[in-house]
Structure formats: structure tokens, C-alpha cells
Amino acid sequence: MTSPELSDQLERYRRVIKRLSALLVGISSVSGPLLAAVTRVLQPPPGHEDVKYFAVFICILSSGVVFSSRDLLVRTLDREAFLRRSALIISIVSGTAGIIGTATYLWRQPSADFRQLLLYLFLWPLYLVPAAVLLICFHKSQSRQYQIQTLLQQLSCELPDIKKLLECLVRHKAHAKLHPALAAFGKVIFSQANAATERLVDGFVRLNIDLMATAFKILGQHYARFDAVSVGELALWARSDRHSYSGIYLSLNEELTQVGKVVSRLFVIFDRELEDVEVLIQVLTKHWRKGIAFAVVLFEELPEELRQDPELLDFGLWDRVKACSQFLLKSGLWNRWINIDFALAHENCKVKARAELFAQMLTHVWLVDDKYADAQKDLTEPLRSTSKEYNKHLRHRLQDKISPDGDFYLRVSNEQQIRSKVLDLLAMWKLTRKDQDTASMATT
Prior knowledge:
- This protein is α/β, with parallel strands linked by helices.
- The chain has two domains: 3-156, no CATH class; 205-443, Endonuclease Chain A (Endonuclease, Chain A, 2-Layer Sandwich), CATH 3.30.870.
- The chain is 64% helix and 11% strand.
- It has 16 helices and nine strands.
- A hairpin with a 4-residue loop joins β5 (315-318) and β6.
- α4 (81-108) packs antiparallel against α5 (114-154).
- The chain is elongated and about 120 Å long.
- It starts with a helix and ends with a helix.
């Protein structure tokens, strides 16, 4: 059990003990004087003094029945107004019956017949039962108020917003009584708000695409780096203007670099996208000029287990292991979700899995610029042996016609090298595909 879970459990035990002690104090403070007063007024019938012990037994038995049904009594507080008042009504009726019975018993004194004995026996619980019922209901209502006050104290920084929200809910309830359709819409909106809040508690945020700028502004304020992986859609990056979805997204990335944040993008491209290398050259040049580090890996060169679902490869990591963002297409470029997962105190498996996936893809990268190589050095150093083995295998496939520039096969050091390195990438792609075709023909 983790430290936060242990502290929460201890806090729950402390609250239970505190409530039990308060309940016992309340019972003793109410029932003690009550029983003393009843005992002083109600003397047993002459010749039957020992019956008072049986009366005490009946009181204990009836009190046990009441306290064993305390959960049922408490649930009446959550019901409609009539049912919520039922405990009070029962207590008033029982107390009134006790007063009438007491008057009858005193009026019949010093009678000692059977009816007088029954009155003496059952007058005690007629006082004790309503006292116990009212005490339980009062304690529960006060306990709920205490819980609400405790929660509000924990949210003291947000009290103005909470107060405003509660006032809006009260006004909505007043309007909803006159407009049933408005009440129905309120239920739908509140259910969506509850679902969003539950996701928030689990460290998950889902926003519409129109809040992309807000999301990046918040994330950029709290994290020092953003490492993105983009699958395909090179043409979208190439023709992006400042009003398009990709243009605004690219501008948000550029704004992060302008305030000193590390921003990188790993392009996962398909074979068909290499048929027009000018698009790739244009995209990489645009990223270079905006200060965004870039790298290129071919989708078909990734291990087979990574190629099962291309959408899983499209994501962004914030501070590598702190948060993970992902755009999900609904329909149309501007109809997307922004999903953000945060690594909470308990380990978020999704963020960890994306971080591991990102490190795994780095060993299959063909082209990087200097910024990207430097930015990912802490990840590539432990994987250097794996990268060397992959480069050795790749060099064999290329028949030593193109030599690696270092840990990554092709490395761009300035903007003028982008075209030549992309052309080398195209040549590598053709050689490897030719090698695959030769191998498949030999197998056949």
C-alpha cells in the first residue's frame, strides 16, 4: 500500500472513531437525563417494584432495534420531502403517545392492574425510541454538513468559483421547475460535466479542437519539452497556412521554441509519400526555420508489432513521462478531439507505454537534424548498441553504397543540407526496396 493510500485509510478510521465517540456522547447526554427524569416520575405500580428491571430490558431491546436500523433511517434523508420527514413524524407521534400514556398512568395511580403494568413497561421506550431516532438523524445531517465544510476548506482557493457554480445551479433549478425541457437539457449537460470530472480525476482531459491553443498554452507553461510523433499527412504540413489546422498547430509549436522550450517532431512517413520528395523537403525546411527539431523514420521499416495500428504512433510527449497528448480525428480536419493523459501519483500505464514506444522508434530513425540528435541524446545513449546493430544491418542492405553519418544514418547540420540528405534518404529507400524485391524473388 502506497503512502497516500495509507494516509487516506488512516484518515477514514479517524473520522469513523470521531463519529462513534460523538454518537456515544450524544446518546449518553440525551438518554441519561431522560431516563433519570422518567424513572423519577414513573414509579412502578405498588407491589410490582421489580418490574422496573424488565422495563429497562425493553428499553435496551428497543434501542438496539433502532440503532440496527440506522442505515434505513439515514436513507430516508436522501428521499423525497415526505419520506425525509417520516422519521420526524414517527418521533413526534411516539413522543406524543408517551406523554398521553404518562398522563394516563399518573391519573390511574395507585392502581396495580395489568393495564397499568403494560403502561409502565412501554412508556419507557416511547420516550427513548424517538430520542434515539432524532439523535441518529441529527448526527447524520451534521456529519454531512461537516463533510461538505471539510471539502470546501480543501478547495479554499476555488471558493469563489464554487460559490458562483452553486448559485448558477440554484437559479437553474428555479427556472427548470417552469420549463421541463430546460430541466431535461440540464440533466444532459450535468451528466457530461460529471463524466468530464471523473476523467479529470483519473488524469485524463478531452477537449475540442477549438481549444487547441488553450491546451498548448497551459501545457507549455508547465512543461519544458514537447516531443511529437506525426504519422503521414506530409501534404497537410506542406500546404499549411496560418489559418489552417496544421498551420495553427505549427505556430503553437513555434511559440514554444520562442520561450526556450525544446520541441521536436518525428515524422513517420509511408512509402507512397516518398514519390514526391519535394513535399518532404518543404516540410523539413519549414520546421528548421521555426526552430523545431525533426527526424524521419519509414513506417515500413518499423518492427511489425509497431505497424499494427498507425494511429497509436501519432502522439506527443510532455517532459517525456509527465503527460501524453493525442489528436483523434472525428470527421474532417477541424473535427478532432485533443486527448491528454497525465501521469499521476500512481503510474499511468498509457503515458509510460507511449514513452517506451517513442524510445523504440528512435532506433529505426534514418534521418535527423543536429537539434534532434542533441535533444534525444539521453535516450539514444543507452540504445547505442541497438542503433549500431540496426545501422550495420541497414548498411548491408544498402551494399555499402551509402555510409552512416553517426549514430543516426543521415544527419542534417544546416538548412542547405536538407535537400541533399533527403535525396540520400530517397536513394536508401530505393536500394532497400530493391533488396526486398530481390530477396522475395529468391524465396519464390
